[in-house]
Design a protein that fits this description.
Strand content: 15-25%
CATH topology of the largest domain: Kinesin
Structural class: alpha+beta
Number of helices: 24
Helix content: 40-55%
Largest sheet: 10 strands, mixed
Radius of gyration: 49 Å
CATH superfamily of the largest domain: Kinesin motor domain
CATH architecture of the largest domain: 3-Layer(aba) Sandwich
Bound molecules: adenosine-5'-triphosphate
């Protein structure tokens, strides 16, 4: 007789209660000042709830499997509570991790985490694929990902192609083989952690979050992440699909009058979830047996001789459930059909999946009522049993066992590879991609815009700066030209007026006073100053230079610069002249140039690259009261070439003209010592 196909072979189940862990989020900011609720472990599985003031809460002892306080990290939570379910899912069981709690209590933080502290989902993906592109293939498995949300009682595919599919509601159907399933849901094949997290990030962008009074990023929908594994090479596994579900439930909002429409839908679906749990946990049974008869069964089995079963701690509870529960017959008693959430979670609640219920609690006293509701819900859920198909060994034929050896070999190979990768330096491992883009996208958008704005401002400032720098260099150039002009003009004047014999300080001052600029002070005053030593030679030099202002071509800011650049009193320039001597030369040359300009109608040439440089003009040759040959060559050439050879009568006329204008004697004056 032909044996039934492995797929159809009915396997016994083992009873597995829901694992319930509680996580209390930390309080931050001003909320921390008002104190926090605290859970203190009393014994193995009981926690005592303390109010912020420290006193115990009446009827505040709750049984949980584990409890995590505000200091616990996501990694710790994953390692201690969720990891074994993930491993079981890869090994061939259905597994579900549900995050339940009031709004802002840290469900999404625990499931998705942050880029700095990955949550259960990215850690599970990392665990499954082990940083290897072909991690699952090594185990002979393929994986498919679906990600959807239930928003206002509509099932929306978060991975759907195209905008119309992304918004249309999908129906939840039921058939005998698959149970409840979402029709038309996209199942994307994934080969690596990177694939999965990229798709999750895309789904997160579509998922609905909104700012509420309690949370800036409050989930407005229940999000269900589902990774389906299919055996590839084993005849037994080929017919078996197992699923890992990770569910981030929306937070209940107990402020009914403030709740929005989606808030009301959230509360409604959570109410039905509570109803299902309540029905499932009634007497801890849903298969027709009372709690008492279950205990009796246990006792009978425990005392039965030759039971032949080794006993891990919880196996006593599991052994009595070797008979498959009569689910179909009793399913009517459980109101799964009342909401889409309870339909899609059917296998996790009293079904065939290993289930972990993570209950998150906000420890602020202002959330006390909701916290207590959550803790009571957790207590109730803990007495719900699921029924897991029992281990492969008892279910398989000899033929299947040979596959089991192959499986074991593949698993070992996979684990060895994973070990090798972990032993390699961290730098060579690709980082876990950012799965939180959707959730944080709004904040990132704002930062991005801010950055763009700052960049534009920076560019405008750079342009402004460049324009100013250009203007400055143009001004520098003009200043240089004016300096050159001043330099040239003053030497020209010097050539005319310097006496052949050394000039006394007195004579010098007289000559100074001949300038109209000193109209405010009498000669006698100035002479007196000099005789009394009240005006030192340096201030006299400055006074001389200031006369240059009276020369129109020198009346510019370059004059000031010139003054500032004057050498210190008594110091000599490169040619060995004192500053005083140089200043005298400057002024005289300027006057001489003016008179030459008047005579010839020429204008002073602008300093240019073809002209003698300033340093050249202050050369050691320029030591005497007269001008050197070189100096002569630097003087501007008058338009009339006969100007230096002017007849005596013309020179006299010039001389008279200068006198009448109050200028020092012109080039025709013989005592200048300059040859005409
Ligand atoms: N364990 C924790 N450590 C640090 N911060 C936390 C923790 N739990 C929650 N938070 C912070 O609290 C805020 C609310 O958390 P989260 O959004 O996860 O709450 P939620 O329960 O998902 O709320 P909702 O149901 O409204 O979506 C977030 O800013 C989150 O970063």
């Amino acid at each position: 007789m032909r044996s039934p196909s492995p797929a159809r072979r009915e396997r016994p189940s083992i009873r597995e209660p829901l694992q319930v862990v509680v996580r209390i989020r930390p309080l931050v900011g001003s909320a921390a000042e008002s104190g926090a609720w605290r859970l203190e472990q009393r014994d193995g599985q009981h926690w005592v709830c303390h109010q912020p003031q420290g006193e115990k809460l009446e009827r505040g002892v709750f049984p949980f499997d584990q409890c995590f306080d505000g200091k616990a990290t996501n990694k710790e939570l994953f390692d201690k509570a969720a990891k074994k379910l993930v491993q079981a899912a890869v090994a061939g069981s259905n597994a579900s991790i549900l995050a339940y709690g009031q709004t802002s209590s840290g469900k999404t933080h625990s499931v998705l985490g942050t880029p700095y502290e990955p949550g259960i989902l990215p850690l599970a993906v990392e665990e499954i694929f082990g940083f290897r592109d072909d991690g699952l293939q090594v185990l002979g498995k393929q994986a498919k990902l679906s990600y959807f949300e239930i928003f206002n009682e509509k099932v929306i595919d978060l991975l759907a192609h195209g905008p119309s599919q992304a918004t249309s509601s999908l129906p939840v159907k039921e058939d005998a083989g698959r149970g409840f399933y979402v029709q038309g849901l996209r199942e994307a094949p994934v080969r690596s952690a990177e694939d999965v997290l990229r798709l999750v990030a895309r789904g997160e962008e579509r998922r609905r979050y909104a700012r509420t009074r309690w949370n800036d990023y409050s989930s407005r929908s229940h999000a269900i992440f589902s990774l389906c594994f299919e055996g590839a090479s084993s005849a037994w596994e080929a017919t078996r699909r197992t699923k890992l579900n990770i569910v981030d439930l929306a937070g209940c909002e107990n402020h009914k009058h403030e709740a929005s429409e989606d808030g009301r839908h959230i509360n409604r679906s959570l109410f039905f979830l509570g109803e299902v749990i309540s029905r499932l946990c009634k007497d801890g049974r849903r298969d027709g047996l009372s709690q008492r008869s279950l205990s009796d069964t246990r006792r009978r089995q425990d005392s039965a001789p030759n039971s032949g079963i080794s006993t891990p701690r919880h196996s006593a509870r599991l052994r009595d459930a070797r008979t498959p529960p009569r689910r179909e017959k009793n399913a009517d008693f459980i109101p799964y059909r009342d909401s889409k959430l309870t339909r899609v979670l059917r296998s996790s609640l009293g079904g065939d999946a290993l289930t972990l219920l993570l209950v998150t609690v906000h420890p602020s006293p202002s959330f006390a009522e909701q916290s207590l509701t959550s803790l009571r819900f957790a207590t109730k859920a803990r007495s719900v049993d699921n029924f897991i198909p029992s281990g492969l060994d008892s279910a398989r034929s000899n033929e299947d066992r040979s596959f089991s050896v192959c499986d074991a070999a593949r698993i070992i190979e996979g684990l060895q590879e994973k070990l090798r990768r972990l032993e390699r330096p961290k730098a060579s491992q690709p980082g876990v991609p950012d799965a939180y883009r959707g959730r944080r996208s709004q904040a990132q958008e704002e930062l991005h815009e801010e950055l763009q704005k700052l960049r534009l401002e920076l560019r405008a400032k750079e342009r402004e700066l460049a324009a100013k720098a250009q203007l400055l260099s143009e001004r520098d150039r003009q200043l240089g030209q004016l300096k050159e002009q001043l330099h040239l003009a003053t030497r020209f004047e010097h050539r005319i007026d310097l006496p052949s014999e050394p000039v006394s300080r007195h004579e010098d001052s007289l000559q100074v006073d001949a300038w109209p600029h000193d109209a405010g002070r009498s000669y006698a005053d100035q002479e007196g100053d000099l005789a009394d030593g009240r005006a030192d030679s340096h201030s006299r030099s400055l006074s001389l230079v200031s006369r240059a202002e009276d020369i129109p071509c020198l009346r510019s800011s370059s004059f000031v610069t010139r003054q500032q650049n004057l050498p210190e009193e008594g110091s000599s320039v490169s040619g060995g002249e004192t500053q005083e001597e140089l200043v005298e030369k400057l002024v005289r040359l300027a006057v001489m140039q003016i008179s030459a300009s008047k005579d010839s109608g020429t204008v002073l040439p602008a300093a240019g690259p073809q002209e003698t440089s300033v340093s050249e003009r202050w050369s050691p040759e320029f030591t005497g009261p007269g001008l050197s040959e070189k100096e002569n060559s630097c003087l501007p050439v008058p338009a009339n070439p006969d100007v230096l050879g002017t007849p005596r009568s013309k020179q006299k006329a010039d001389f008279r003209f200068r006198r009448s204008m109050g200028c020092p004697p012109g080039p025709g004056k013989d005592r200048s010592g300059v040859k005409g």
